[in-house]
């Protein structure tokens, strides 16, 4: 597993994907936090990073899908899937190696934004007047959200040997779980059923973590969500044997 | 036994790719797996390397079942797939190190250096794979297949698409390797089998149509003997057919004939015939049944059945 992990990380670094993802994420969140009128920290007049944490899940949908789209699609297109799966490694080892590499990249995309935390921290009145608990909760939630997206992306990539199809499929599934399910909860006619459907959405648990309360139920939800999609990936991956 | 295949059948949907084939390959043999395109060569190799399972039947490599002990099989097998897929963005050494680590090699660096030496990749070892010529890529393909020192090498069309010089180089490399390993290689080129292999398995439309040592296959084919003879003067085919055991006579050039006889001493009979008629004989040779011909008869006829 770690051999695959190492190879994936190296290919992220050598193909510039890693840098592009980090820079794009930093710039995109930066735009909303500091530049685009109406959303900036100055406009809101509150020393918080809420803007970033609101917008980041959507940027992640695109970025994480872009990172994961090649993981299996490319192996299949190049045919290297054949040399890879005929070596003494288990299918799960291959999948987890690739998955964890993608999650690591998500983590590294988040790290540079700590600069923004420092800025907001300094802007507080008095200095340091920031809701630290909520902030770390949000970072924590964002990491789990990225991991969940990555599992969706890996799955989409295993489905097809076309990277564009993988990208679009992954984004659609991510949007479905982050946005659409939550919307069901807003439908008045459904009432309590709507509320319980809402519980299945990624956004419900992300928001919950963002409040700064580390609820094990949310963590458990994210972990099982990722595990489920990794299991789907395994099924698809093994389908060559059917 | 290095490879044991028992009654393997593989269906892709409705299409029958491999039909109930069985064969064994013992340690140290170099076996050519010969057949036209689409005969089921690659499918059989994919089954042996655990890439796909058979629809029915069992395959064992070094005593391990490809289904139940897949990981052990994969440890024992080095595989070069058709078209030699490579991560084109990786460096030669980087890729070989990756393959070595996946294969559970202990001293990765040392092993990579060894294999680079063995496959003569020295000059190219710092390049990216996409910068390599096809011949060198094929060497990398062989190198990655052997990196974990497997007992069995399975090579799917190792020389396809190479220029004649490269073909000779790769063949020599395979021959050198063959001294220590069991090798099964597929090809549709006859000369390749003649140049490298001890034994040949001919497969057509999913069925094995011949499985024998090269020499046996050449000599025993239907017991017929082909004699090429050139006379100094004109002879009629009717005359020639009076030779004892002569089954057919075909004129291939000026007074040159290809005669097919049905017993071993046929050449002597032709000679006797010429002496008896006081014919001048310019050339008289027994032609071995060429592998190409055997291949064509075997695969051609099966198609019409």
State the main characteristics:
heterodimer; A: 242 residues; 78% helix; 0% strand; B: 305 residues; alpha/beta; Rossmann fold; Alpha-Beta Plaits; 2 domains; six-stranded mixed sheet; four-stranded antiparallel sheet; 14 strands
Task: Explain what this protein looks like in three dimensions.
The complex is a heterodimer of chains A (242) and B (305). Chain A is mainly alpha-helical. Chain A has 13 helices and no strands. Helix content of chain A is 78%, strand content 0%. Chain B folds into two domains: 3-219, Rossmann fold, CATH 3.40.50; 225-288, Alpha-Beta Plaits, CATH 3.30.70. Chain B contains eleven helices and 14 strands. Classes of the chains: A mainly alpha (242), B alpha/beta (305). Chains A and B meet through α1 and α6 of A and α2 and α3 of B.
Secondary-structure blueprint of this entry?
The complex is a heterodimer of chains A (242) and B (305).
Chain A: H1 2-14, H2 17-35, H3 41-44, H4 50-68, H5 70-78, H6 80-85, H7 91-110, H8 114-123, H9 132-159, H10 163-184, H11 192-198, H12 202-210, H13 216-238
Helix pairs in contact in A: 1-7, 2-4, 2-7, 4-7, 4-9, 4-10, 5-9, 7-9, 7-13, 9-10, 9-12, 9-13, 10-11, 12-13
Chain B: E1 3-12, E2 15-25, E3 30-34, H1 41-48, E4 56-61, E5 64-65, H2 70-76, E6 77-80, H3 92-102, H4 108-118, H5 134-146, E7 152-156, H6 164-177, E8 182-187, H7 190-196, E9 199-204, E10 207-213, H8 214-220, E11 225-231, H9 237-240, E12 246-253, E13 256-261, H10 266-276, E14 281-287, H11 291-304
Parallel strand pairs in B: 3-8, 3-9, 6-7, 7-8
Antiparallel strand pairs in B: 1-2, 1-4, 4-5, 9-10, 11-13, 11-14, 12-13
Helix pairs in contact in B: 3-4, 3-5
Strand count of chain B:
14
Biggest sheet statistics of chain A: none
User: In CATH's first tier, which class of the largest domain in chain B applies?
Assistant: Alpha Beta
Which oligomeric form is depicted? heterodimer
Distance between the termini of chain A: 24 Å
CATH topology of the largest domain in chain B: Rossmann fold
Note the run of SSEs of chain A as H and E.
HHHHHHHHHHHHH
Main sheet summary of chain B: 6 strands, mixed
Helix coverage percent of chain A: over 70%
């Amino acid at each position: 597993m770690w051999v695959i992990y190492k190879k994936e990380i190296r290919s992220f670094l050598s193909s510039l994907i890693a840098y592009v993802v980090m820079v794009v994420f930093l710039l995109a969140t930066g735009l909303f936090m500091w530049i685009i009128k109406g959303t900036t920290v100055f406009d809101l007049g509150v020393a918080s990073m809420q803007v970033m944490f609101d917008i980041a899940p959507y940027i992640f949908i695109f970025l994480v899908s872009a990172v994961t789209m090649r993981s299996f699609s490319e192996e299949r297109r190049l045919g290297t899937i054949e040399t890879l799966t005929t070596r003494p490694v288990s299918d799960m080892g291959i999948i987890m190696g690739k998955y964890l590499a993608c999650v690591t990249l998500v983590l590294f995309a988040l790290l540079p934004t700590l600069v923004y935390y420092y800025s907001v921290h300094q802007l507080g009145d008095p200095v340091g007047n920031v809701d630290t608990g909520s902030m770390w909760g949000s970072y924590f939630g964002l990491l789990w959200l990225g991991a969940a997206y990555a599992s969706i992306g890996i799955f989409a990539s295993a489905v097809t040997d076309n990277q564009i199809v993988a990208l679009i499929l992954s984004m659609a599934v991510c949007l479905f779980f982050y946005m659409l399910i939550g919307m069901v909860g807003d439908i008045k006619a459904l009432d309590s059923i709507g509320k319980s459907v809402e519980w299945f959405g990624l956004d419900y648990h992300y928001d919950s973590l963002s409040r700064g309360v580390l609820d094990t139920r949310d963590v458990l939800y994210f972990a099982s969500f990722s595990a489920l999609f990794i299991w789907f990936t395994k099924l698809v991956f093994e389908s060559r044997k059917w | 036994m290095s490879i044991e295949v028992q009654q393997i059948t593989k269906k892709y949907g409705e299409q029958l790719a491999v039909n109930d084939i069985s064969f064994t390959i013992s340690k140290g043999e170099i076996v050519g797996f010969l057949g036209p395109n689409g005969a089921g060569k690659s499918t059989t190799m994919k089954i042996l390397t655990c890439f796909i399972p058979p629809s029915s039947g069992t395959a064992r490599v070094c005593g391990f079942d490809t289904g139940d002990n897949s990981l052990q099989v994969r440890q024992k097998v080095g595989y070069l797939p058709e078209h030699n897929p490579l991560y084109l963005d990786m460096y030669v050494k980087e890729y070989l190190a990756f393959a070595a680590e996946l294969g559970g090699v202990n001293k990765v660096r040392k092993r990579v250096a060894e294999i680079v030496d063995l496959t003569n990749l020295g000059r190219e070892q710092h390049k990216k794979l996409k910068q390599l010529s096809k011949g060198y890529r094929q060497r990398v393909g062989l190198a990655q297949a052997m990196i974990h020192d497997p007992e069995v090498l399975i090579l799917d069309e190792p020389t396809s698409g190479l220029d004649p010089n490269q073909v000779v180089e790769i063949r020599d490399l395979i021959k050198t390797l063959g001294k220590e390993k069991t090798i099964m290689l597929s090809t549709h080129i006859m000369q390749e089998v003649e140049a490298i292999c001890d034994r040949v398995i001919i497969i057509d439309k999913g069925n094995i149509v011949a499985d024998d040592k090269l020499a046996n296959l050449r000599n025993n084919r239907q017991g017929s003997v082909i004699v090429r003879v050139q006379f100094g003067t004109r002879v009629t085919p009717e005359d020639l057919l009076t030779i004892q055991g002569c089954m057919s006579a075909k004129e291939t050039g000026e007074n040159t004939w290809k005669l097919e006889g049905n017993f071993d001493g046929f050449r002597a009979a032709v000679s006797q015939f010429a002496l008896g008629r006081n014919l001048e004989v310019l050339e008289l040779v027994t032609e071995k049944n060429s592998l190409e011909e055997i291949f064509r008869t075997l695969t051609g006829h099966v198609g019409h059945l």
